[in-house]
Please model this.
Amino acid sequence: MRTREAFIAAVHALVEEFKTSGRIVIVGASLAGLRAAEALRAEGFRGHLTIIGDEPYEPYDRPPLSKQVLEGWVPADHTTLPHQRAIDAEWRLGVAATGLDRAAKVVRLANGEEVPYDRLLIATGVRARPWFHPAEAALDGVFTIRTRDDAAGLQQALAAGPARVLIIGAGFIGSEVASVCRELGLAVTVVERGPAPLVGALGGVIGAIAAAMQRDHGVDLRTGVGVTSLVGDAGGHVRRAQLSDGSTVDADVVVASLGSIRNTEWLEGAGLAAGRWGVGCDAGCRAFDINGVVTDSIYVAGDIARSPHVLYEYQFLAMEHWDNAVVGAEVAAHNMVSLEPDRWAHLLLPGFWSGQFGVNIKSVGVPPFGDEIVFTQGSITERRFAAAYGRRGRLVAAVTFNHGKWLPYYAALIERSAPFPPPPPGFDQPGDMQPVPAEFPDPSVPTAMPEVVLTGHDPSERRAEVRAPRR
Amino acid sequence: MAEETPWQQALTYANRANPYPFYAELRKTPVSRQPDGSYVVSTYREIVTLLQDPRVSSDLRNRPQAAAAEPMSEPTTAYVRAPSVLTMDPPDHDRVRRALMRHFGPPHAPDLVSSQEPEIQRIVASLLDNCKGKTRIDAVDAFAYPLPVTVICEVLGVPREDAPRFHAWIEAVMDAMDLGPEAASAEQQHRRELGHQGFQQLEEYMTGLVDRYARQPGPGMLSAMVNDRADERLAPGELVSNAMLLLFAGHETTVNLIAHSVLTLLRHPDALAQLRRRPALIVPGVEEFLRFESSVQFWPGRTALADIEIAETTIPKGAPIILVYASGNRDPHRFTNPDAVDLARANNEHLGYSHGIHLCFGGPLARLEVQVAVGEFVRRVENPRLVVDPPPYRRNQVFRGPRHVLVDIDGIRD
Model:
């Protein structure tokens, strides 16, 4: 028994030593990186903490960038996130991480430096998907929104009073920008390839309501059409867009809101399960290597993390939401300085919000996981309602328009895997409470060849390798 | 007579100073059917679940069979024709709440609460100045009561000099409410009669005030609501019932919270000393006081609109539901060491302001008042000592609070 006790004591001493003098590196200086740093200190980590970020700014809050900042209400540089506690970290801001050497346990930086770690947190998030044509994307007046600088630039362009703003893509960002434009009294055209706004996130039934909201507010919404090219003037300023239906739109400001790209390029060659889909990790935020084996020293949090979710048939979900960054960071931080069985699971019920056209939209669960939708409370015509999403008789998500106070009810039902449709409310029933197809686009058709192949036969040799790119 | 249930015991006046042991007994059966067919819910999780459930109504008209026999369960609706926002369901509830909020909070009146702070500071300072030279004060009459009543008069535009009158009416209404085993006593029947009269007088008074503002606009929320030209305006009857609610709820609960905060600190010298060392703790501290001694102990006005399965019980359609917030706030499955006072308690999502669509409308104003009042009391009052413990309590079970809190003091600092 003495040796067993001595062993346990030695393990605890190791943990204490790590907490006292270990080195933790966080790559990514946004919400997840900041909250992880704070949580590490709160967990009693007293060792060396380095935070690496490619932007020159301290962590700032992104949700206002497509709303209050564009309205001109909040300056872009007033979005710095408040610190919840002292972090005492070494900040490496304005220098990107460009590589990871897992054998040497160092992060390589763009300036050639190497930063050693004992434990690493990957929180590099996503960036805006740029307009596909680089020369057109470089025209003056063409914007994407992800960063503080993006938002500051677009705010100025909107404040200058352009004759028309063109928004390409009617997801949440595009729709929010369209809403701000209308509030500023600007003419705005929204071009969306799909049948309606917000269809990817909330399905076609809700999308139709979002489309009506846009049109009621004077947005020139064109669906089922794409933009094929942007045309600039002699001074290099965008002036016109060609659409796939042969029409053109004259616009001085173009916002490409085409979704996001995950910042995983710096992990190439590191042998992690990293790619277009993000960085795979377990529900305890530990990164998987390329073979799907969990690592001990590398953790993932925020938009870039993709982990299996108990409530959704253990499918790997990336949750690009604010609270996922916060809670994921806290769980990752805890697990970085804890041993089993004291590790936590990141079992967040995903949720997000948006504000557009005077309506507060909130959601819990994973709407695209559902195939049916039913309106459960309120009034669609008054644009104050709750709707629930179901899959095979089970409630999997809900969305509210100006009805957010009811969302916790649905969250609790989803957490209990309650039946779909939920029981009818006792008051304020919508007219029609029949479930209908939720009208999500076809689930992801593979858009490229798989990126990895299997090699080897003996269990000691069997592994995945990155396929050589085919040209 | 059958043995009294823990719930009936909790309602008995003799147990007003300490109903908590009976709540603990109640929590052994989270949802317990009472002999009168109502369902008492005493655990945190079940209370929150029912507060969120759109099959649970706040509209008392949904239980007509109970209305006649039911003792007055809510002062503003028992006799008045139009219900207040407190006893409405969506969509009417949402419409009325929006119409009220337009004059009280963001986005239309974002500064209303914070703009009261200088006045609150001034009132608190003068109340404590008035205690100078005294060796014994009543923390209720001299401190807890005058602040909220002055503030609510200011906010609503109710003349402060009318306070003695409406205070007496509200006292009568409060004393008339009894949901417990003593309701049938001759004494209580007499109080009910006085309460009825008090209510009518208050209603007449408020109708007169609202009419006056309709003719001649003046300062405050009432005049603003009467003269509101927005699309969603309140009907005259709605205006009067909601004005009564705001006047009543806008100070009675705050009086009890200030009194209970002082009482709690005097009973917990460690917490008092801690607050003296770290005055910023008053902010989480007020939340803890509200958890520990909830100003609204329970709410008896909800009704099941369908059979509701909860905690291995079915609450049948039509049954009254009584949500015991003060018990949920002491639920050991939700709060660590629930019977201890922890000023810095983490994740203190207590039910002191309820939860869901009926979340306390005036919460932000109450917080500010109590933070300033109790913070200054702790800073300025020298060596406060409780004279009588437990202090005498008011009769009302829902709006539970001490009638007096006598405190011996050595002096008042500047």
